[in-house]
Amino acid sequence: MKSRRRRQPPTRPLGRVASHFTREGTAKTAYRTQAEAASAAQLAWTLSGVELNTYRCDYCFQWHIGKRYRDD
Ligand SMILES: [Zn+2]
């Protein structure tokens, strides 16, 4: 039997799964395509000068944007 995948690991999540959630533990906004995520990232940059990157999420298989820190 394969190892079960827990939705919420007991320890601090690392890597791409962690990228699905904000620091507060709520799910981030998900975009269906990279283009949508990129548009949102560009809008954020335009409005507030925040530089965000886009990445595909292994958790929900959609796209998120986030700061350029792995530890977000
Ligand atoms: Zn996700």
* Number of continuous helical runs: 2
Helix and strand composition category: alpha+beta
What oligomeric arrangement do these chains adopt?
Answer: single chain
Q: How much helix, percentage-wise, in residues?
A: 25-40%
Number of E-state strands: 2
Radius of gyration, whole Å: 13 Å
**Helix and strand element order:** HHEE
Characterize the biggest β-sheet: 2 strands, antiparallel
Low-confidence stretches: none
Overall tally of structural domains: 1
Bound molecules: zinc ion
Strand content: 5-15%
Span between termini: 33 Å
Main-sheet strand order equals 1-2
Quick one: overall form?
Answer: elongated
Mean pLDDT: 81
Please outline the helices and strands:
Layout: H1 15-18, H2 34-48, E1 52-56, E2 63-67
Antiparallel strand pairs: 1-2
This protein binds zinc ion (ZN).
Description:
- The N and C termini lie far apart (33 Å).
- This protein has a two-stranded antiparallel sheet with strand order 1-2.
- The chain is of the alpha+beta class and 72 residues long.
- The protein is built from 2 helices and 2 strands.
- It has one domain.
- It binds zinc ion.
- Zinc ion (ZN) binds at residues 20, 30, 57, 59-60, 62, 64.
- Zinc ion binds at residues 20, 30, 57, 59-60, 62, 64.
Offer a quick outline of the entry.
The chain is of the alpha+beta class.
